[in-house]
């Protein structure tokens, strides 16, 4: 019989001269594996729980106590009672090193809150969403700074808003939509504090980690920090923050635009273009999901396992963990090739970063930096149009790199998979109508919003799930176009999304991280863990859309009739009663 994962990890720990932070992770991963063996798996077993445990005593003392626990032979398992007693004696509850707090700028009903929301029921619901900031507000406890080697949590100076439930710490790209919602709630100081926390992390490490945990420092997430800084600055001009942020943003930009993230691609005319990809600095199982990753890679060679673990972590860096978008066979996680893909959305984010840095530099009078990043934005826009635009489909698609070690890649192939990735920022007037028509015919539009893809794989970033940040990106993209048709589409998607959020809230009492696009008010599912409530970015997007579009007094918030799919891949959905198209 092979060794249990906890045995392998403990052997590495006991003979290790690793830094204390690494030793802590090794111990917690061993406890994660032991807990699985003792308690069994199932939908309620969450491996992240164990790497979030705060230690009461030093790592070596706790490791010695763990090694001394009696084990059943020949399996080597620890009885559930013994393990539970050990956890209670040696650890705090996950999240206990984050203290609930009341943001100083929170008021139950802010002045001039959502003036365009006139419907009483919509206003009541919006105020309930606003009140959820109190449930999600946290301050990192002093003990994290005083005893950093007893926590996987990273110390942060300012209070934060967390996503919710198992996501009990700060996450990078979630924070952008949380901040947008906080600004609607007139909580500028809380929003600014969250940005300053992220700037501190980026200043120290050169990038913002996936989340504020030591085990997330092997990867980042979609780079939205510049957009957060701009959001704060546009809300209330703050040159002090801008001047603090600019050198840090340039450092983060360098992280994304140098190897291994940047790839140079040569087009058919032998012109060279620079685009970026996700690329985690990791090739072993993710600590927060170690047992899951090991199960996916079971039976593969050591070399193939290392490649797969790298692409799993890279998919987590993308924020889309997991999706058929990254799978070579469209279905199975062992076929992930995330690091071999040039994603449309990442390069759209970097284009926005370049425009943002140019804008912020102009605000400070730094003409040299403004010119440099304006030129960089123009070059990336050309690269996106040359390499990622598909003329036949009138859409932008991810680009798959050939598998070789050359630093200079030639044009190979686009991966034509319908996704919720529409690069409206690059759509010139000549392309607008074509892009809108392609989007309208994509099959992604549903009663509950925009589905993430057309493939139903059981992964959470696939059909039929719909996610708040993707709805918002598409709505904002459509709204920026000089097109009445695009603006109507943006309003329509916003209405569908808000109604679905509202119906689900009334039925469950919760805002959730994802929804089922096929139906108004149905909660989404799939993926590695149960659907989570809270929920930071969903709350932020709902408030942002209500602020942008309002809600008329005579406009019902709940659907006036039930919508059911007429054809599963059609863009049309019909009313049961009158057969009227939902798009009419």
Instruction: Give Rg in angstroms.
Output: 24 Å
Tally of strands: 17
Q: What is the topology, as strand order, of the major beta sheet? A: 1-2-3
Strand content: 5-15%
Uncertain segments: 1-17, 416-422, 562-584
Structure, described:
With 584 residues, the protein is mainly α. The chain is 46% helix and 8% strand. The protein has helices at 5-14, 20-39, 48-51, 59-67, 80-90, 120-136, 142-146, 172-184, 188-205, 225-235, 239-256, 290-296, 302-318, 344-364, 367-388, 429-440, 468-480, 484-508, 536-549; strands at residues 98-100, 137-140, 160-161, 262-266, 272-276, 341-342, 389-390, 395-396, 399-400, 408-410, 413-414, 445-446, 449-450, 465-467, 514-516, 563-565, 573-575. A 3-stranded antiparallel beta sheet has the order 1-2-3. A 3-stranded mixed beta sheet has the order 5-4-10. Helix 8 crosses helix 19 and helix 14 packs antiparallel against helix 15. The radius of gyration is 24 Å and the shape is globular. The protein starts with a helix and ends in a 9-residue tail after the last strand. The model is unreliable at 1-17, 416-422 and 562-584 (pLDDT under 50).
SSE layout and pairing:
Layout lengths: L4 H10 L5 H20 L8 H4 L7 H9 L12 H11 L7 E3 L19 H17 E4 L1 H5 L13 E2 L10 H13 L3 H18 L19 H11 L3 H18 L5 E5 L5 E5 L13 H7 L5 H17 L22 E2 L1 H21 L2 H22 E2 L4 E2 L2 E2 L7 E3 L2 E2 L14 H12 L4 E2 L2 E2 L14 E3 H13 L3 H25 L5 E3 L19 H14 L13 E3 L7 E3 L9
Parallel strand pairs: 4-10
Antiparallel strand pairs: 1-2, 2-3, 4-5, 6-9, 7-8, 9-11, 12-13, 14-15, 16-17
Search tags:
globular, 6-hairpin_glycosidase_sf, 3-stranded mixed beta sheet, 6hp_glycosidase-like_sf, glycosidase, 584 residues, disordered N terminus
